[in-house]
Amino acid sequence: MDKIIEVRRQLLANCTIGKWYYNVSQICFSLELPWLSNIPFKSCIPPGEYTIKPISTEKHPDSFFLENRDLGVSWNADTPRTTIEVHIANYLRQIVGCLAPGMELHQKIDDVPWVGRSGDAMEMLNQLIDGEGWKIRIVQ
Predict the structure, then answer these.
(1) What is the dihedral of CA 45, 50, 51, 56, to 10 degrees?
(2) How far apart are CA 95 and CA 54, in angstroms?
(3) Where are the domains of the chain?
(4) φ/ψ of residue 109, rounded to 5
(5) Which element (helix H / strand E) includes 120?
(6) H or E stretch at 9
(7) Furthest-apart CA pair in the chain: how many Å?
(8) Three-state SS for 122?
(9) Residue 71: helix, strand or coil by DSSP?
């Protein structure tokens, strides 16, 4: 069994919507910032394959971070993009270059979609990603 979650994204003018799949079954949605030429803290991340690793910070306990040094993404400050997390959030205003998972995708508030049940999605992801060797493949 592959340990790869595929995120199929739709780039919109004001946000990025993702559908997450594991072993051909959809498991959740995600919300990201729009594509803004990979500007740190203002853009969604570029497509590609990332290692996903657990992390727990004071601000985002029981979360994950993404890393692919070839794409310029790491946890440390030695790459153009840093601290890209998968963490609980429902609205675009709650994320800064990160991915917000949710079990539901809702219609727009102020012309921006939002995700519901983000805590449930994080709990599901924490149960699924049970150790090292997991990857996220982001496609559009």
Answers:
(1) 10
(2) 18
(3) 4-139
(4) -115, 125
(5) helix 118-128
(6) strand 4-11
(7) 41
(8) helix
(9) helix
Tokens of 68: 């692919």
The count of residues in the chain is: 140
User: 18 and 66 in contact (C-beta within 8 Å)?
Assistant: no
Residue 119 phi/psi, 5° resolution? -60, -40
Sign of CA dihedral 127, 30, 136, 26: positive
Q: Are strands 73-74 and 81-82 parallel, antiparallel or unpaired?
A: parallel
Contacts of 25 (CB under 8 A, 6+ apart): none
Model confidence over 35-77: pLDDT tens digits? 999 999 999 999 999 999 999 999 999 999 999 999 999 998 7
- CA distance from start to end of the chain: 24
CATH no. for 4-139: 2.40.440
Q: What is the mean pLDDT of residues 95-109?
A: 93
- Coil, helix or strand for 14? coil
Torsion of CA 42, 125, 69, 48, to 10 degrees: -80
